[in-house]
Amino acid sequence: MREILDRLKASLELWEYPYRDPFRVLVATVLSQNTNWQNAKRAYDALLTELPTPKKLSEASLREIQKLIKPAGLHKNKSRALKEIAQIIQEEYEGDLRQVLRKPIEEAREELTSLSGVGSKTADCVLLFAGGRDVLPVDTHVARTSKRLGFADLKDTPEKVREKLEPIVPKGRRGEAHILLIELGRTYCKARNPNHSECPVEELCPKIGVD
């Protein structure tokens, strides 16, 4: 795994996640579900320009939220989830989730996934980007590339992929691995027609599940 990460780091962009506040990371991650980053970013900017705090978001109508986040798609489902999340943050955490991020990782993950619309990946993104915790969120790109590289089985759930990946990634590099595997999936290891000839880890990859 170390050699794969080193090769990917030399070839791909190791971008910086733009948000550090846990509320904003939550909003961005919920909006990014089932859409591309460009659409999620448009919705994020529109929403948090008008409703920049958990209090303001919790007090807004669903109709208003839906209108603001429409570019992200699934705006009815996402608006309900975001409003419920904002209400809980405001009522139970006095508008500040940082206290959750100071808890042990498993406890914090469990508490975050109890929020509406927050699954393991979203919770881990909050722990990683807002909390600075050494976790490895698994999205569709991370899951696909990990399975093709042989680090997880084709039938594994994202949670199972995470459980297999984290122990083999060098400590302190799980966030880096998350970003690099996403970029590998976006750039070379696409769901359809992966670009083997230009992939920086082609000779190390068993190409499991690829025709």
Overview of the structural elements:
By secondary structure, the protein is mainly alpha-helical. It is 58% helix and 0% strand. It folds into two domains: 20-128, Hypothetical protein, domain 2 (Endonuclease III, domain 1, Orthogonal Bundle); 135-202, Endonuclease Iii, domain 2 (Orthogonal Bundle). It contains twelve helices and no strands. The chain is globular and about 55 Å long.
Work out the radius of gyration: 18 Å
Question: Tally of extended strands?
Answer: 0
Largest sheet: none
CATH topology of the largest domain: Endonuclease III, domain 1
Name the structural class. mainly alpha
H and E order: HHHHHHHHHHHH
Query: What gap, in angstroms, lies between the N and C termini?
Result: 23 Å
| Number of discrete helical segments | 12
Name the CATH homologous superfamily of the largest domain. Hypothetical protein, domain 2
Unreliable parts = none
Helical content class: 55-70%
Strand content: under 5%
| CATH architecture classification of the largest domain | Orthogonal Bundle
In a nutshell, what does this entry contain?
It catalyses: Hydrolyzes mismatched double-stranded DNA and polynucleotides, releasing free thymine. By secondary structure, the protein is an all-alpha fold.
